[in-house]
Amino acid sequence: MTLPARINGWVRVVPAWPIYILAVVNLLWEFWLALNGLRQYAVEPINVLERQYGEIALIMLIAGLFITPIRNWTGVNLVKYRRAIGLSAFLFVLAHFLVFAVLDVQSVSRVVTEVIKRPYVTVGFAAFVLLIPLAVTSNNRSIRKLGPVRWRKLHMLTYPIVVLSGLHYIWLVKGWPIEPFAYMAVILALLFVRIKWTGIRDYLAKRDASASS
Ligand code: HEM
Questions:
Q1: How open is the CA angle 61-67-185, to the nearest 5 degrees?
Q2: What is the rounded CA–CA span in Å between residue 150 and residue 10?
Q3: Which spans in 41-177 are helix H?
Q4: How close is the Cα of 51 to the center of ligand 1, in Å?
Q5: Ligand 1, atom 18: nearest CA belongs to which residue?
Q6: Membrane-crossing residues (predicted)?
Q7: Span 41-96, pLDDT tens digits
C-alpha cells in the first residue's frame, strides 16, 4: 500500500471534531494566560492577546488553503478537515476582533473611526466581513440550498480573504520584519498554484470534451 493510501486510511477513521475542541481549548488557554499576565503576557497582555489571536487565525486560514494542493500533488485527501479548520480560523478572527473592540479600543465609535482611518484596520475588517458568509454557509444545509457550484464559487472568497489578511499584517508592522512577508509569500504561492491548477484542469476538460465529440 502506498503512503498516501495509508494516510487516507487513517483520515477515514480520525474524525474532524477534535479540531474544534483544540481550537476552543487553545483560545481559552491564551485568554487565561493573558488574564493572569503569564508568559508572553507579562507586558501589555491585551495587545499581545490581540496579536496572538490574529496570528493563529492567519495560520489556520493558510492551513485551509493547503488542503487542495496537497490532494492534487500527493493524493492525500484532507478535505474532511477543511470545514473544521475554516470555522476554527473564523473563531480566532472573531476573538481577535472582540479583543480589539471590547478590551482594546472599548467603544463602538472608536472601532468605526479606526476602521475608517487606519488602512490596515480597514483591510483586516474587510477580510473579517468577507469571512462571515463563508462561516455561515459552512454546513451541509447551505451546500444543499445553494447547490455545490454556487457554494464552491462563494467559498473561492477564501483566496481574497487570505490575501487581505496577509496585507493587513504587512501594513501594520513597522520596519521590515521577515514574518509578515513570509506569510504573504506562502499566500501568493498558494494563489499561483491554484490559478495554474485550475488552468490545467480546464484545459484537460476541454481537450477530453473535444476528443469525445
Ligand atoms: C481575517 C481577518 C483578520 C486576520 C487574519 C488578522 C490577522 C492579524 C495578524 C496576523 C496580526 C499581527 C499579529 C502579530 O503581530 O503577531 C493582526 C494585528 C492586528 N489586527 Fe488583525 N486580523 C484580521 C482582522 C482584523 C480586524 C477585523 C480588526 C479590527 C477591526 C483587526 C485589528 C488588528 C489590530 C489593531 C492589530 C494590531 C495590534 C497591535 O499591535 O496594536 N484585525 N491581525
A1: 55
A2: 31
A3: 45-74, 82-98, 108-117, 119-136, 140-146, 148-155, 158-172
A4: 6
A5: 51
A6: 12-32, 52-72, 84-103, 115-136, 157-174, 180-197
A7: 999 999 999 999 999 999 999 999 999 999 999 999 999 999 999 999 999 999 99
The model's confidence at residue 197, banded by pLDDT at 50, 70 and 90, is confident
For residues 186-213, give the mean pLDDT: 88
Integer-rounded Cα Rg, in Å, for the chain is: 20
Ligand 1, atom 27, lies closest to the CA of 125
Distance CA 17, CA 174 (A): 38
Nearest-CA residue for atom 8 of ligand 1:
54
Q: What is the pLDDT of residue 87?
A: 98
> What gap in Å lies between CA 191 and CA 159, rounded to an integer?
7
Among 149, 161, 155, CA closest to 137: 155
Q: How far apart are the first and last CA of the chain?
A: 37
Instruction: Transcribe 137-192 into DSSP letters.
Output: T-SHHHHHHH-HHHHHHHHTTHHHHHHHHHHHHHHH--S--HHHHHHHHHHHHHHH
Question: Which atom of ligand 1 is closest in space to residue 61's alpha carbon?
Answer: 5
Question: Residue type at 123?
Answer: V
